[in-house]
Amino acid sequence: MRARSGDEGEGKRLPVRVAFDSRPLSDPNGVGRYARCLLHALCDTAADGDHVVETQRPSATARARDIDIFHSPWMAGAMLRSACPTVVTLHDLSNLKRRSERLRTGMRLRHLAVQRAVRVIVPTEAVAADAVTHLQVEQERIVVIPDAADATMYPRGAQPIAAARARFALPEEYLVWVGGMEHPDPGKHLAELAATPRRLPLVLVGPTRPWAHELPDVILTGRVSDEYLAAIYSGARALVLPSEDEGFGLPAVEALACGTPVVACETLALREVLDGRATFVAPGDTRALIEAAEDVKRPAPPPPGWSWEDAARATWAVYLRAIAPVDLPRRMPRIPRRRATGASGVDAQ
Asked: CB within 8 A of 243, min separation 6: which ones?
């Protein structure tokens, strides 16, 4: 590996070539949003000579001699073995807190891969604490870099809002929830939210599967473009977040960027990100959530003053530190041997 300094203030340094796992770019949910926004901002903030290589084959790209570091923007892309240092982003660990998820062989291999990363990026201190507790990642290797609202998220005027209402058959006033509905997730409490009595209609925005169409008395939009999403945010009375656990709460920051109030069941991460910017109710109390959302007043507080360019500059600093000649000592977990029978055939990358 080429000698270089991890301190950006020590004069000139050699260019950095980053392999960025681009597989989640098409994901319609938060991981995809993170990957797309960060990749764009990394390219915009790169120093002279620095370069980001998008890869659909991380293991092959990481073996290339001209790659300095590999960044997986999701846990699913973390590699057990790599010819260059690796950085992994963890968005939340709510699934890991469920015993059924912890026991899955594939998940255990992913956890080992995260433990072998030189640096682990998380969006909040709450997720950092979870990574230490549930993945045994050393605190010294964790870096908190918050997410941000995309530049397309800003308050829309009457015409775009009316166009969104016409396109998705939305009422004049409504509450909104944004997220993926491909699989039932009991931690999101969507079924309880849909069943809670309310005065205003509830609009659920995001990709769906058949189970979501069985939720009572809701309006489903399916996946929408960023322009329509900003208009739907702007036209809503409030965004509601009934989840029992969050890693960051990106829809909340997007809603605030569009001028829409946020009402949430309290979690550590949401309080960390939104303290003073959202109305909180007790965890699991969907009735209080709905009542507060229907009574909330505008204008909404501004979103946190953090941009994707800020996140990208902080991420470049992580890359530089990760490839510095002298790094933090770290424990290398052993990979458990598979039994001769019942092998799962899980890809170890």
From this structure: 187, 188, 189, 264, 265, 267
